[in-house]
Amino acid sequence: MNFTTLRAQLAQFPHLALANYPTPLEPLPRFSKSIGANVWIKRDDNIGPGLGGNKTRKLEFLMAEAQRCGAHKVVTFGGLQSNHARITAAVARKLGIEPHLFYFEKRPRDFIGNLQLNTLLNAKMHFLPLAGDGRNDLQSINRLVRLFSRAMVGPSYFIPVGGHNALGCLGYVDCAAEIDVQVKSLGLENVIVVTAVGTGGTLAGLHAGSTLLDSPVRVIGIDVGKLWTKFPHDLAHLTGEITALLGERRTFAARDIPMIEDRYCGRKYGVPSQAGTDAIKRLAETEGIVLDPVYTGKAMAGLIDLVRRGFFKSDETVIFLHTGGAPGLFAFP
Ligand SMILES: Cc1ncc(COP(=O)(O)O)c(C=O)c1O
Questions:
Q1: Does 3-51+165-331 match 55-163 in CATH topology?
Q2: Which of 83, 194, 261, 264 to probe ligand 1 with, by most ligand atoms within 8 A of CB?
Q3: Is residue 182 within 6 Å of ligand 1 at its C-beta?
Q4: Residue 129, strand partner residues
Q5: 32, 34, 82, 185: which one is catalytic?
């Protein structure tokens, strides 16, 4: 599929303009020197309402659909420091829709970080202390929230955790096309994009987009969560759903999903790791750019470790996708 056809396919879906594109793609000369690789950064942080982030691109499609359905309320859920929940609340408020956020945790004593922003946005927060410590099945947990929300909120538009469905992921198909154009116009070659993986929608959208475009740009995701069972299998299925939505039936297997699972997550999702904290400090002190402890810090720690292990070839350009999340910094001492 060529670029024009892909953009025409995307244009068939209702879409809101919540940020200015393309987001900048900037070199990181001091950081690159300090780790011994050619690294650039794609600034998808701080895009969109409510201090924004990567979820904005997904919500441009999902909230347009909510509006089309005439929704007065929107429901979603996430971990206590979910950026997705906070950005959904901000976009909903901008559209005059009431945001309801579910958390499978005890109601915390202090509302800090993203929870503080949710309070400012007057999001309706529902705390259900049902969380287990193990991995969950993505589809079952979405079904569970739907059930609770029907009883507790009434009629509403439901957005899965992380905006993780084929419609939402179109935002990152579009981003793959955007990166393809930027890389060509900057004359960058042998490019590999590194992104944090939470629910994996960002990765699936990028992978679907670069596959459809037959782009030379490769993508690799770094799992920061260890959250889901059958994860590569589910992402393969989702990637196939995304390409089908855009008019091309393709089959992806779990082994086709370019993701490093488990290695860079640290103890568990939502708990900062030492390597992640070190990576945050290294980027801040070399380039003045701030990452977050839950997603991008751990993904950057993965990137640094992969450079150390010789994973990238010396002629490869690595683009780190900065997916946002800075409000999470203020939830940790
Ligand atoms: C800051 C940040 N980076 C990365 C991710 C991961 O995105 P995805 O859920 O699409 O894998 C998220 C959300 O989960 C996020 O909030």
A1: yes
A2: 83
A3: no
A4: none
A5: 82
Indicate whether 132 pLDDT > 70. no
Q: For the whole prediction, is pTM greater than 0.85?
A: yes
Distance from residue 199's CA to the centre of ligand 1 (Å): 7
Fold of 3-51+165-331: Rossmann fold (3.40.50)
Helix (H) or strand (E) holding 292: none
**Amino acid at residue number 28:** L
What's the pLDDT tens digit per position in 278-313? 999 999 999 999 999 999 999 999 999 999 999 999
DSSP 107: P
The two three-digit tokens of residue 13, written as one number: 């879906």
Q: Which is nearest to 228 in space by CA: 178, 166, 160, 180?
A: 160
Please report the sign of the dihedral spanned by the C-alpha atoms of residue 195, residue 200, residue 204, residue 205: negative
Please check whether residue 321 is in contact with residue 195, taking contact to mean a CB–CB distance below 8 angstroms: yes
Examine the residue annotation and report whether 149 is marked as an active-site residue of this protein: no
**Model confidence at 250, in pLDDT bands (50, 70, 90)?**
very high
Asked if pLDDT for residue 131 goes beyond 70, the answer is no
Domain 55-163 has what CATH class?
A: alpha beta
